[in-house]
Amino acid sequence: MRNPLILAGTALMLMSAPVLAQTPTQIEANQRSVKTLTDRDVYSSDNVEIGEIEDVVLDAQGRAVLAIIEVEGRLGLREKYVAVPYDQVRVPAARNERVTVPMTEAQIKALPGFRYND
Length: 118
Prior knowledge:
Elements: H1 4-21, H2 34-37, E1 41-43, E2 49-58, E3 64-72, E4 78-85, E5 99-100, H3 105-110
Parallel strand pairs: 1-5
Antiparallel strand pairs: 1-2, 2-3, 3-4
């Protein structure tokens, strides 16, 4: 008689083998790491540096939905945080190119402040 625990364990190993074979070993060309976005300068559509990416908010499915931008005021001091829909943030393929949003400096500064619910 065969041990049901051994049979179940063998079946589980066979079912998980394809998943293990598909485990990524690096970030693909069409993907971005949040780590590479954090603290990147952000420019408005009128070519003004408005601040930097502070955070990226994910939905329940793990998709990026908001970019939290630290808007700078005078002398580079933080004025406030604003939330911009992530699909409006243009992240270039090259690290040395600018991250932009399709809003003017005035439009971004007019956005309501974003607060974390800690």
